[in-house]
Amino acid sequence: MTEQLVDPRAPRDLKAFIAGLPKAELHVHHVGSASPRIVSELAARHPDSKVPTDPEALVDYFTFTDFAHFIDVYLSVVDLIRTPEDVRLLTYEVARDLARQQVRYAELTITPFSSTRRGIDERAFMDAIEDARKAAEAEFGTVLRWCFDIPGEAGLEAAEETTRLATDDRLRPEGLVSFGLGGPEVGVERPQFKPYFDRAIAAGLHSVPHAGETTGPQTVWDALTHLRAERIGHGTSSAQDPKLLAHLAEHRIPLEVCPTSNIATRAVRTLDEHPIKEFVRAGVLVTVNSDDPPMFGTTLENEYAVAARLLDLDERGVAELAKNAVEASFLDTAGRTRITGEIDTYTAQWLAR
Ligand SMILES: O=C(O)c1cccc(C(=O)CC[C@H]2O[C@@H](n3cnc4c(=O)[nH]cnc43)[C@H](O)[C@@H]2O)c1
Ligand SMILES: [Zn+2]
């Protein structure tokens, strides 16, 4: 019997459709997904931190003047994660929040360097994320996979450490599928990371660097050429280069678009100026993602609602966006078929009510 996925009493509007739609999330950061409840719980445990313990005060704390300010605040939250149990709790709660939004599959970007350099034992770190991943899949049905990213601004020492953690067979977690590069882009040239991406790719990992979030289209070209990017994190400035858009479309390199993030970090001035429409018009495979949802006051559901407004989409259009994320994911064929089938069934049932 086909599972009844649509609640027949749900109001017939797009928000309710999005809420129940099975989804995949491809660009969401581990620490950046900590809910206000978890952040305040951790802040209360560590009173030496400047992070507020009152969840309401976090709204102000999470208001950013620019990208550099965002990274400062981000690292203050990283400082709250001090034990393997903190890592496990955070990971498990992030999975719970994703499951509540009908996220069936998520690739979570984790920065192991930030934890190991703060003294968390590397073996205990891997065990904590894997334990949470398995529990989340068993209890919520949400499949989690990892992207380990280099915090580029921390330099080649961070690149070496991240590559070691991602490729050492004794450490590398089962859920690891990809290798990334995050943090500020200004002054952090992509080509210097080529040897590290080469090693990660040789070890079977997919390449998914951030590029073109806070710098121009040349950074995206560099990510494609030097880091052999298979997807681009953000890629916002690609809109400034028609040849680049054509290249992304022709080679079916997806963009991981995170509209609210780009406003919150002031990378883009207003949502109406966001280039997502230009990406779609150029034929680029667009996926919609939440990046650091509580820090940006958003959710994946809200990002779909924003994208639907900017792209003027109805239910079928939103379902196509959800299917783009499945297509762009590193799930195996059986997993993709299963989630795509769920999206189709849900949409057909919704439209037939
Ligand atoms: O951990 C450290 O000690 C450290 C030292 C120097 C620099 C850094 C970083 O730059 C960490 C950046 C951190 O930010 C994460 N992140 C979250 N959201 C985004 C985004 O929208 N764009 C780029 N990076 C983002 C990223 O995963 C890194 O963990 C750290
Ligand atoms: Zn990101």
TrEMBL record:
Q: What is its EC number?
A: 3.5.4.40
Reported cofactor(s): Zn(2+)
Recorded coiled-coil stretches: none
Instruction: Tell me the domain of life.
Output: Bacteria
Domain Adenosine deaminase as annotated: residue spans: 22-345
Q: What class of enzyme is it?
A: hydrolase
Pfam families membership = A_deaminase
> What GO annotations for molecular function exist for this entry?
deaminase activity; hydrolase activity, acting on carbon-nitrogen (but not peptide) bonds, in cyclic amidines; metal ion binding
- Could you mention a single GO BP entry for this protein? menaquinone biosynthetic process
Q: Please give the catalytic activity noted in the UniProt record.
A: 6-amino-6-deoxyfutalosine + H2O + H(+) = futalosine + NH4(+)
Give the record's pathway: Quinol/quinone metabolism; menaquinone biosynthesis
In terms of InterPro entries, this protein maps to: A_deaminase_dom, Ado/ade_deaminase, Metal_Hydrolase
Which SUPFAM superfamilies does the annotation name?
Answer: Metallo-dependent hydrolases
Q: Which UniProt keywords apply?
A: Hydrolase, Menaquinone biosynthesis, Metal-binding, Zinc
Q: Which family is this sequence assigned to? A: Belongs to the metallo-dependent hydrolases superfamily. Adenosine and AMP deaminases family.
The record's annotation in PANTHER family points to:
ADENINE DEAMINASE (PTHR43114:SF6)
Q: What is this protein called?
A: Aminodeoxyfutalosine deaminase
The species this protein was found in: Streptomyces luteogriseus
